[in-house]
Amino acid sequence: MSHILQQPLQPPITSLTPAQRRVLGTMIEKALTVPESYPLTLKALTTGCNQKSARHPLTNYTEYEVENTLNSLREMGLAAVVHTELGRTERFRHYVRKRFSSLTEPQVAILAELLLRGRQPIGDLRSRAGRLAPEGSLDTLEQLRAELSGLAAVKLVQSDGPFEMRGVDIDHNLYQANEGKRMAMRSLSSQEPAQDQTPQSAPVASAADNAEEQAENSSPAAGLAGRVTALETTCAALQVENKELRDEIAKLREAVEYLRHVLGG
Fold first, then answer.
1. Do 42 and 90 meet the contact criterion of CB atoms below 8 Å apart?
2. pLDDT of 168
3. Cβ distance 150 to 107 under 8 Å?
4. Alpha carbon of 68 to those of 13, 17, 23, 63, 219: distances in Å?
5. CATH number of the domain at 18-99, out of 2.40.50.140, 2.60.120.10, 1.10.10.10, 3.60.20.10?
6. 149-164 pLDDT, tens per residue?
């Protein structure tokens, strides 16, 4: 009787550290843009993580830090080491399509772009991810929205409004809880119809706008409540940005102390 060796089930991936996101995003990007150099050596991967274009924020990871991050990604089933016949140097590749088997190639490209740059307007995302995706797969916003819907279904992306809304921002959904990067939905008063909205849906939006305007005119309290809600949303966003700035300052201070220690200052 033959026995089939089954791989142990791995827990779902709901968050990644900043280093894990940068390393994973870089592997995906290089696999799509320079396949002749992929899988990547540790040195090439470190250089890719720290490159100054198409990255936010900029990083200065060491090979040691990237290697430790790779080990954690391998434990999660997101990366693997490869030994080629042409050289003894270990090379590394990602396993995103294995861990997220439902993803299409355009969705993998979108995820890579978001992992490398983070939050961005939907128009910018289309042009940037389009250079990574198969030709013609992300030429229009309609194509991008369809792929985003699939990513949202498996909780890999988030947005601050419906994908059809004009000026909506998109981000990945793999932040850790303490990073405070969960996106809040915009208040109804700030939502605008999408640029490519069809004429059939325009009267509905117009009726909704008229109803809201009438409600505010007939009830000053309702209009005040709407403005208060908008202010609360703005304050929440500012609190998140303030925390991000404080975290970045703390990291810069740590880096300065480390350099002083290394340089003997």
1. yes
2. 97
3. yes
4. 18, 12, 11, 9, 60
5. 1.10.10.10
6. 999 999 999 999 999 9
The CATH number of the domain covering residues in 105-193+205-249: 1.10.10.10
Calculate the dihedral angle through the C-alpha atoms of 163, 165, 167, 172, rounding to the nearest 10 degrees: -20
b vs e for 50-89, b when ≥16 Cβ sit within 10 Å of the residue's Cβ?
Answer: beeebbeeebebeeeebbebbeebeebbbbeeeeeeeeee
Please tell me whether the peptide bond between 39 and the residue prior to it is cis, using omega within 30 degrees of 0: yes
Task: Please choose, from the candidates 89, 81, 45, the residue with its C-alpha nearest in 3D space to the C-alpha of residue 63.
Answer: 45
Task: List the one residue out of 90, 84, 131, 87 whose CA is nearest residue 112.
Answer: 131
Q: Compute φ and ψ for 10, nearest 5 degrees.
A: -100, 145
Contact assessment for residue 236 and residue 180, using Cβ atoms and an 8 Å cutoff: no
- CB proximity list for 96: less than 8 A, separation 6 or greater: 24, 28, 78, 103, 108, 111
Label residue 13 by pLDDT band (50, 70, 90): very high
Cβ neighbours for 231, distance < 8 A, ≥ 6 positions apart: none
Partners of 186 in the beta sheet?
A: none
Q: Which residues contact 121 (CB under 8 A, 6 or more apart)?
A: 167, 168, 169, 170
Residue-wise pLDDT tens digits, 129-140: 999 999 999 999
Selection from 102, 116, 123, 98 nearest residue 33 by Cα: 116
Same fold, 18-99 and 105-193+205-249: yes
Q: What is the per-residue pLDDT for 264? A: 63
What pTM does this model have?
0.69
